[in-house]
Specification:
Blueprint (H helix, E strand, L loop, with lengths): L1 H26 L3 E13 L1 E14 L2 H23 L3 E13 L8 E12 L5 H10 L4 E9 L2 H26 L4 E9 L8 E3 L12 E13 L1
Antiparallel strand pairs: 1-8, 2-4, 2-5, 3-4, 6-8, 7-8
Helix pairs in contact: 2-3
């Protein structure tokens, strides 16, 4: 009888344990925690690009066009002199529109020329921009530095972001007395995807573009139990 009672007691404990486990994993809904992880990789830029625009205004549309063409040629020559032969220049857009003028004034026309410069020598970016403005550029914008093996670098930054998110989630789960469970969802922050390259500058006469930072952010939701 005593052995039978012990067996019954053991069976009862096992049943209770199994019941608790079943409740925790199959009936009780687990909580969730969402974290944002960030991964950064410092690499050497291989390529750089920028957009150059020039605005010309004249009462004669023909004259505005001619002045615009002449100005663009001066800018292209300045770019080639600053960068060398290893430069790619592409027309970005070209518009001719009536300019806004005060009432009673003669009609004027504005011509906007824009072109993209791409080069494999990012170190000359600073003198190039100075040369473009001194040669008549209206604006220099959309400066982008692209690292070597861009896809591989972005993947590494993405992996670091996921790892960072997991570490954050673990700390939050432990602080709440819980365990980290499976990944429920993972979303990449697209707002950082294309503009994730930044430049590191040094003091002195110019900029040192020997390193750029590629950054990725991901939002990850985990179960916690």
């Amino acid at each position: 009888m005593e052995i039978s009672s012990r067996i019954k007691a053991i069976i009862g404990v096992v049943v209770l344990a199994l019941g608790a486990t079943f409740y925790m994993f199959f009936i009780q809904k687990p909580g969730v925690v969402t974290v944002v992880g960030q991964g950064k990789i410092d690499v050497e830029p291989q390529e750089a690009s920028l957009i150059v625009t020039r605005l010309n205004v004249s009462e004669s549309p023909v004259r505005a066009i001619e002045e615009g063409d002449t100005g663009v040629k001066v800018l292209i020559d300045a770019a080639q002199n600053a960068v060398g032969d290893d430069v790619k220049i592409e027309r970005s857009f070209y518009t001719i529109t009536p300019a806004s003028v005060a009432q009673g004034s003669a009609r004027q026309y504005q011509v906007v020329n824009a072109f993209k410069i791409t080069m494999n020598n990012p170190s000359v970016m600073s003198p190039l921009i100075k040369s473009l403005y001194s040669s008549g550029a209206t604006t220099v914008s959309d400066v982008v530095f692209t690292p070597k093996d861009k896809e591989k670098v972005e993947l590494q930054a993405h992996e670091k972001a996921v790892t960072d998110a997991k570490e954050q989630a673990k700390q939050l789960a432990q602080a709440a007395g819980k365990r980290l469970g499976r990944v429920v969802s993972i979303t990449e922050d697209q707002s950082k995807a294309e503009s994730s390259v930044s430049t590191g500058l040094t003091s002195g006469d110019g900029a040192n573009f020997s390193s750029v930072t590629v950054s990725k952010r991901v939002s990850v939701t985990y179960e916690i139990r």
